[in-house]
Amino acid sequence: MYGDDETVRDILTGTGDTWAVVGLSNNTSRAAYGVARVLQRFGKRIVPVHPKAETVHGERGYASLEDIPFPVDVVDVFVNSAQAGAVADAAVAKGAKAVWFQLGVVDEAAYARTREAGLKMTMDRCPAIEIPRLSS
Questions:
Q1: Beta-bridge partners for 74
Q2: Alpha-carbon dihedral of residues 133, 84, 31, 2, nearest 10 degrees?
Q3: For residue 49, what are the β-bridge partners?
Q4: Are the beta carbons of 18 and 47 closer than 8 angstroms?
Q5: Residue 106 pLDDT greater than 70, yes or no
Q6: Are 123 and 101 spatial neighbours (Cβ–Cβ below 8 Å)?
Q7: How far apart are CA 11 and CA 15, in angstroms?
């Protein structure tokens, strides 16, 4: 596992409440759609990031992290592992405080680069699973 429970808890509770969700669209069958709803229920502001730039769960979408005109705290990544490293690098450039690679998203080189840049990071985990697990 990449990111111990203390890191995961800190990202969820101490890093900030604005989460850019990369890969989030209005496709209700995708995991990102349900996870974003859970994040909202736990007080997070979600920012959809998807090439279609759709409004999702009442929040305006943007085509890329670079297009978001305000700071984001956490970048939650729902793209495949081959694309995830570029998203992590964009999160560093954006000034995010943490990067979260979802279940099945693994890029060890990106993990190392992101941590070296001073960001908190976890990968191959899901906040919709971790929030209830760590709050019990």
A1: 19, 98
A2: -20
A3: 22, 62
A4: yes
A5: yes
A6: yes
A7: 5
What lies within 8 Å, CB to CB, of 96 at 6+ separation is 20, 71, 72, 73, 74, 75, 119
Contact 92, 114 (CB under 8 A): yes
- Tell me the C-alpha distance between 89 and 82, whole Å: 13
Nearest Cα to Cα of residue 40 among 62, 18, 61: 18
Q: Which residues contact 103 (CB under 8 A, 6 or more apart)?
A: 31, 124, 125, 126
pLDDT digits (tens, 9 = 90+) for 55-96: 999 999 999 999 999 999 999 999 999 999 999 999 999 999
Three-state secondary-structure class, residue 30: coil
Q: Is the pLDDT of residue 2 over 80?
A: no
Asked if 72 and 94 touch (Cβ cutoff 8 Å), the reply is yes
